[in-house]
Design goal:
Elements lengths: L7 H56 L3 H14 L4 H16 L3 H14 L3 H17 L3 H8 L8 H14 L3 H14 L6 H9 L5
Helix pairs in contact: 1-2, 1-3, 3-4, 4-5, 5-6, 5-7, 6-7, 7-8, 8-9
Length: 207
Amino acid sequence: MIDYNKTDDEQAEDLKAWWKENGISVIAGIALAIAALFAWEYWQKYQIKTMEGASALYSTLQTTADDAVAAKSIQELQTAYPKSPYAALASLETAKKYAEKGEYEPAITALRWAIDHTKDVDLKNVASIRLARVLASAGKYDEALQLASQSYGASYESVLEEIKGDIYSAQKKTEEARKAYERAILSAKNNSSELIKIKLDNLGKGA
């Protein structure tokens, strides 16, 4: 605080003394602020560049009909951009292609990779639910049932109960399958329950 009762020379001496005592701290604070600003700008540019690179590879994956090019794009996404949502999405699509061909082991591997690397809760949930379905198709019922029995939120309830019904049906546990399908129908939205009703009807009336 300036003391107006002092002469200019005295105030100047006070300022010199204050600067001598605090100057280094002031300069250091300014330097840190500037460094933080540049670091933030660098981080923003890095994030943009990373997303652009991952997006380009994902676009290639979606448009190419060449399996070798697709495989290379997926590998580069997983290696160079493992935390990018594009890498997880690419793994989900890869798993889907393998599962549709009945190649369950590589599908399981791709889904596990997505679960282990994505930080997006919705992507992790989708990958986990798809993994439960693929495990069931591969005959790994206990693991599939354990995964389907975890908590994913109300919006996933119908599909999870359907998966449980499929598992119980494959295990010839008709009563458990019936109850699971009924729960799936009750929690289903719109017309998504039609297929489940067919599965339920195919169980018959039971013993």
